[in-house]
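[audit] Reproducing an earlier prediction to check determinism. Same input, same settings, fresh worker. If the tokens differ from the archived copy the diff job will pick it up downstream; this log only records the rerun itself.
[audit] input (89 residues):
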Amino acid sequence: MKIRLVGDVHGDHRAINQMLQSCHRYDLTIQIGDYGAGFGAEAYLPLIGEDKFRVLHGNHDNPKILANYPHNLGRFGVFDIGDKKIFFI
């Protein structure tokens, strides 16, 4: 399984577009904080499925906005990738 971790795009529309356009190269892309939810970045989430892109929110993300999207991992927890469990904070 090919997993990509991306951090701190801070709602940069050019960076988000580039990231989402290349998601097909990976089984899963995880935004590890400071995506920019609440600053307009949430508008891109409906363009890609949560099976390809997930967001761990950081201090530059509005958790109430991210809670409306299945891409949201929250601030900490466990999720499954294939037969592996991933713990994150």
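[audit] rerun output stored. Observation attached for the diff report: The chain has two helices and six strands.
[audit] end
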